User: Fold this.
Amino acid sequence: INFNWEKIPEWSNEGFFKLFNRKLIGTTPSKLNMSNREFSIIIISSSLGRIEDKNNPVALKIRGNQNIAISINIPNDNNNITIDFGDKKYLVPQQIIASNKNVYTVSYNNDELKVYVDETLIKTFKGVPKIYFDDTNIEVNPYRDWNANLYSILIFNKELSLNEVKFLNSYFKRNIIDN
Assistant:
């Protein structure tokens, strides 16, 4: 299953793509057999600072519901993560240092949405709406204004437990980020 760059980004030998002014177009959620009842998305990145007036750009977007099934917004500098989920906006109140090499995990199961930074659960949203995916492609940096280094994106068809998040975070830090 392919994800294709709209315009080829710069690749670093340190294991990342430079994303500013680049858009990655994936396949549809149905081709990934992505469940709208339970899934997890991991984004490994480091933000490179604010550009113009854009501080909280969309890192990943999946269309559905009336407009957006899920949109993960990661700040270009130190600020808050926001998530659009089922056409409703959720603010993670804890500010993060987005310039660090972070492992962001968003995990969903029925009516509960969990947000982790590295191995720390920083927010649980309960009673979130049901989501429905449409048949459009998953997009990474859809508006080309996320100023970040992208190491990896993973999509799981299950809610990850805290132990799984800790294990994956440890693996990524040891084998991808710190090398």
In short: The chain has a mean pLDDT of 91. Residues 59 and 141 are 5 Å apart (CA to CA). The longest strand covers residues 38-47.
